[in-house]
Fold this sequence. Notes:
Blueprint: H1 12-20, H2 24-37, H3 41-51, H4 56-66
Amino acid sequence: xxxxxxxxxxxxxxxxxxxxxxxxxxxxxxxxxxxxxxxxxxxxxxxxxxxxxxxxxxxxxxxxxxxxxx
Length: 70
């Protein structure tokens, strides 16, 4: 059986494994968002997936909509 190699000579299976693991920076943003706003980790991960981890202002705005403080 031939190895699953992409056009650049990299093992495709390894590439998909790398893509499935969330980067450490994403974990940091999720943790910070949960601590700052009180939303759940699942909600924070979903926001980061939609908006990207570099959009802190937008992440905060959306998290505060999900969990407004009384």
